[in-house]
Amino acid sequence: MSPYVPPGHLDAEQTATLLGITRGNLRILVHRGHLTPAGGTDRHPHFRLTDVDALYAQRAARSQRPGGPVRPTRQPA
């Protein structure tokens, strides 16, 4: 049985999927203070949808910035 997630909130799996990251990377974002759990438990946190949307927009804007870091492409073997 999955823990209750109130309306307007996402569980950790939904949050990671929306941000396009792994659950491990989500834990790193929380540890660094980029995203704060809005309830739940340590094992099953949930996050406000507005906070997740704001972080998503911030990350999208940073990746679209001209002169920003260029992600290396993998060379075919």
Could you explain how this protein is built, in words?
The chain is an alpha+beta fold. Helix content is 43%, strand content 12%. A three-stranded antiparallel β-sheet has the order 1-3-2. The mean pLDDT is 85.
In short:
With 77 residues, the chain is of the alpha+beta class.
The overall average pLDDT, rounded, is: 85
Tell me the distance between the termini: 44 Å
Q: In DSSP terms, counting alpha (H) and pi (I) runs of 4 or more, how many helices?
A: 3
The structural class is alpha+beta
Instruction: Give the low-confidence spans.
Output: none
Q: Biggest β-sheet: count, sense, barrel? A: 3 strands, antiparallel
What order do the helices and strands come in, and which of them pair?
Blueprint: E1 9-11, H1 12-19, H2 23-31, E2 39-40, E3 45-48, H3 49-64
Antiparallel strand pairs: 1-3, 2-3
Task: Record keyword descriptors for this entry.
globular; 77 residues; single chain; alpha+beta; 3 strands
